[in-house]
Amino acid sequence: MIVLKRYILNDYITDDVRMVNPMMEINGFKVRPGFFDLNGALEFSCGVNFTVHTSNGTSCELLLFHPGEEEPYAIIPFPESYKIGDVYSMIVYDLKSEDFEYAYRVDGPYDEQKGLLFDKTKVLLDPYAQAVAGQEVWGHKRTRTYHARVVRDSFDWGVQPQSSREMSDLIIYELHVRGFTNHSSSGVKHPGTFAGLKEKIPYLKELGINAVELMPIFEFDEMINAREVDGKQLVEYWGYNTVDFFSPNASYAAAEEVNNEGKELKELIRELHENGIEVILDVVFNHTAEGNENGPFFSFKGFDNNIYYLLTPEGNYYNFSGCGNSLNCNHPVVQQMILECLRHWTVHYRVDGFRFDLASILGRDEDGMPMNNPPLLKSLAYDPLLRNVKLIAEAWDAGGLYQVGNFPASKRWAEWNGQYRDTMRGYLKGDFWEANSAAWRICGSGDLYGGYYSDGNSNYAGYNSCINFLTCHDGFTMYDLYSYNNKHNEANGWNNTDGANDNRSWNCGMEGDTKDPEVLKLRYRMIRNACAILMCSRGTPMFFSGDEFGNTKFGNNNSYCQDNEISWIDWSLLEKNKDLFEFFKFMIDYRKKHPVIRKKLDNAVCGMEAMHAHDVNAERMEVPQNAKTLAVSFAGYDRKKGKDDLVYVAVNAYWEEVKITLPNLANHGAWYLSVDTYGDEKGKYFYQEGEEIRIDREYVMKPRSIVVFTGREILR
């Protein structure tokens, strides 16, 4: 028999296991049935517990390898008596985690039309592996099969509480861990790593963002589709080709972490939290790196191909992801894996939220059809451990399912607001017919998520569903948005056929790089416009790293394969464009200081309605369809400050000056100019509290500019 006392200390398991007569010996190893409810591999003082499951497989073998070797030194078949239901579990005694790597082989029926691909010769990676061996060096071409390692989890999180910050209070900064610091200008000791990102925390804190959204950090193989174009090696740089869902990308660690994988990432997350910055992971549950019929075969295909993947009646792969396959997310087995995965990252890495790539796939049934109430989305929304983490959906997929405003939210899911991106990009560059829609976007997209900007009594519950963005990893940077009319993806090797064609961008009169001072002046004004409106819109703002100082991808709007200067952040631009950085800092701080932008407050004492949109005259109650200029006012009583919080933002998308009339403030109130993106004669674009300029109700806006006014009592 076996006696197990389990102690929970800082989220890891220690034990007091006394071995009393292992039940049998297999190929020289003492074994006994293991803990069937502990998926993956877990080390105890007596040995290691291995648990794995297959619904259609008929037998399973555990393979043990010396570290770095391809041939197993031991093969241990699971006895049939070590199986309950579909689960195999076995404790192998006298194993030490540092001495081995492991994998499995599964036998079973082979019938391609039924999606059964069992092959007892295939070496399979544990779907619940917490570390993948051989992935430690970035850009190293893999020449052997995938093996897993056992991880000792002894990280001490101390008494750090879980964040209680509301979604509407976040300012999200999307970044790529490698690209953020890999450029020679980054100035960090450990470029391209979790440690390098940790070195940049003082910068993030100065900028003022309070959440980072990390592009995929689950283990992926950047070399799977490696190729050479014009003498440069192209790789799967972004990381949207998951190899294993439970382990961090080993090549993102600066130090060797054998059997202690994740330590550097945990140190990064802990320090980000200590500096008031939440961590959101971009997770890819829509497909895996195994691809289609021609893709590699290393894990899910060999355990239960027809369970893990969506298959056509002929046994082929549905490709709603555009990457070869689609996970069968609403099968109970896959649901369980995804739920356990998110719990794992929430408990053992203290992650604050998840952004789900191509999330509409998560709502498809086994025939690929959209479901009205997908069980996976519902179970994630109501899971007790995930209760306070943020759940963010990219509410579309590559199969044509577009659910922005209609994602099955269960009142828990937020969405990337693709309509905000498209509408505001168009309106800011002069697509005047977008005016009415632009007003909705600034006011929180109440037409999509509930609430009406012209009615102070409306339901505003939907605003936590709205993630506003103009730029992200996919598409132009903010600088490129105003430097290129067309994409320039020639370096990707597909004759510029890849990437989106509908960018709603404008080169401000000259395509690409230029030294023309007037063109550059306009470009930077347009970037300030984009920043100002993003930070003054109801909903949660998000922007891409480097936008705050004019980083460029040289017109490439699909840099998924570019591990070079196209994708890496050029930190020398921070000094060159310091004024732009200071503007972003100000706008972020301004948003934080004015809760009325972020949420509905109590009714304003001055009598202004909570939210109001109009054109050049605040007395009008509508936004004409083709308005060249529109304005939105936010008003409410801030209980913490004991006074009204009043903000007025106006957008002049026209190429000529426009006179606007602001709302009339009662009770000795007045408007003060806080921001004018055109700038004054000294090149000043914003005014700190106390130095703002008091104006009368009329103000002349310069061409293609945005102004922000703060209402307050007249100082006497």
UniProtKB/TrEMBL annotation:
> Cross-referenced CDD domains, in alphabetical order?
AmyAc_Glg_debranch (cd11326), E_set_GDE_N (cd11234)
Q: Which principal EC class is assigned to this enzyme? A: hydrolase
Specify the species.
Answer: Anaerostipes hadrus
> Mind telling me which Gene3D superfamilies this protein's record contains?
Glycosidases, Golgi alpha-mannosidase II, Immunoglobulins
> Where does the record place the Glycosyl hydrolase family 13 catalytic domain?
174-591
This protein's source sits in the domain of life called Bacteria
Give yes or no: UniProt keyword Thylakoid. no
Protein name, as recorded: Glycogen debranching enzyme
What GO molecular function terms would the record report? Answer: hydrolase activity, hydrolyzing O-glycosyl compounds
EC number of this enzyme: 3.2.1.-
Tell me its family: Belongs to the glycosyl hydrolase 13 family.
InterPro entries, alphabetized:
GH (IPR017853), GH13_cat_dom (IPR006047), Glyco_hydro_13_N (IPR004193), Glyco_hydro_b (IPR013780), Ig-like_fold (IPR013783), Ig_E-set (IPR014756)
Q: Name one GO biological process term.
A: carbohydrate metabolic process
One of the Pfam families matching this protein, by short name: Alpha-amylase
This protein's UniProt keywords: Glycosidase, Hydrolase
